[in-house]
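Hey team,

Filing this mostly as a record. A colleague (T.K.) asked me to run one chain through the structure pipeline before their review meeting, and I want the input and output archived in the tracker in case anyone asks later how it was produced. No errors, nothing strange. Just documentation.

Input sequence:
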Amino acid sequence: MAAHGVGYQAESQHFYGGDFVQPQPVHPADLAACADGRFVPPRDIANWEHAQSLLRDRGVVVLCAPPGTGRRTAALRLLATVGSRPLRIVDLEPEWSKPDAKQLPAAADHGYVLDLSDMPQQPGPRFGQGLLNHGSDGTKNSCYLVVLTTPHEWREVWSEEARHIKVDHSSPNAKPLVSQELRQLGAEHRVTWLNQDTYTDIWQSNPPAQEARRLARIVYEAKENDNSIIDEFRGWSTHINALLTPTRQGPAEPELVSTRATVWAGALLHGGRKRSVLHAADMLLEKLKFTREPLNVLADATSSHRLNAAALTPHGDRAFHALDKHDLAPAILRHLWEEFPTQRDLLRSWAVSVVAHQAVPEDDARITISALLELSRELHDTSIIDSLAKEVSERRISLAVEALTSAALDPVLGKYVRGRLYRWMLGKPSSAMVDLVTQICGGELAVRQPSIAMTRLARAAVHAPYPSRPMVDTFRRLTQIHPTEVAKALETWLTEEPAKKHALVAFLSLAATDEGTQLLLGTTDTPKGRRRFVRAWQQLLQDEESQSAADEQLGRWGAEAENGGLPLELLVDLMSEVYEPRIHRSGLQRFFARDPDFQDSFWGEVYRRVIIRTHERDRTSGE
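Output structure:
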């Protein structure tokens, strides 16, 4: 078996508008997981062999299973072993309003993984046939496609045409997978632990792949082979139940619901300040409409009693759940989410409001963000991401940018978050959401995935004002690290006539920085580039929404040219072409009105050149 993924760069096709499917490199660690000697096949061997034959013969197969069942590793294995020669295997990240098989790439000697677990809307009725066509055409050029979906998603009319290429995927058997993971971690000496009677119930329940890998990690990190391994794998359920149903409830002790709120707040803020934990607990009680007026607070147990009743241990001014129980805090949050599924909306709202609340210090808010992102990974609760974005961007945007930048580059959450950055900008987003996406696109996402950042930035620019400080800062950053990418995007955007708003916002944002100005002037070296430059300024000056901002920016350019900061002759020549049409020429009057030395100024020279160009044009047309 052989597969190429290391060092693979996204294909050279760059796209900055409309529907598109972006190829993304597969991480080497993901390819390693499906290698010979490492891969553990699904427990349903008949279905696995059927999937192999479908991909080989029809060029496409749909693996249907919930997340966490090892379906992506199985997809990579299918593609890595389907042909006689190695394929270049890539993930596909759609940027579409709804799925369309015609948008899927089909390069020769390529293997594609398309995850349709979170579709923006249902595909059209011919989508299934489109997948079949993609597969049949692809087999001629050694091009293969594996689609990942869930039973919830793959059930509408459009899926009927593709029912013969759908296979129900199953997780590998848990014990061999845990054994293999331990060997990979360099802990083969612990594989024998798995044969002890304490593990029998686990093997009989045969947990899915994600849980099996979690068990392997627990065994690997354990100090010794004792019952704590099983307790942690089962989520410390006995300990958590004891925390939530304390036996002692006297008159000096807090009420049960108050104790539970403090237990949960302590898990959300594990290692946070005691005051923040109690504040978070009170916020949950308020969400639950549990009265916390001053009289109730003073009549309740003291803060130290509340922390003690929740079994929280103080260390200085911070509070921790039992440190001898590994990963107890995240287990408590998982238990809360899983045991009260009908209250998830309320719980998300509470947890995110803790991040957003100004009374919670930033370092404590970061602890909460980390806990929520981990919860989102473990339980595939992507609604946490949406709640973080919408709630926190309104109140603490720097924290929201930090959290979602991290999530956008996360191996598990990244694909979903990058998709959301795109979709959040398709409707009528709030100004805070526009600023959030803009700032994320100018950060580490721009460094590591510039084309992804540029696509989402284009969507955000549609909703940005003239001028927009976040847009200016983001385009400055992008121009510093990826000037070629920015120039390529701008050329694409300005080719449309008339240019759309996102192109003009980008152009004006670039004009507001030294780096961007140099890039814009550099585009005028060719006739087509010069034409795009002139047309962009003319459109900005003519549009009421952008006219004032464009006038101010041109005023700054003129002053810089007079002071030697910009090439005077080039700028005079370009501006005389911008203002030559009579509809724009009146705009020069504002410079005349405010500058008594207009005749000898930069704009006076522009005006003189405009008159000369007009006379020459009139004379030429009259001959």
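Quick notes for T.K.: Strands lie at 3-4, 20-25, 60-64, 87-95, 110-115, 143-149, 166-168, 313-315, 318-320. The two ends are 75 Å apart (CA to CA).
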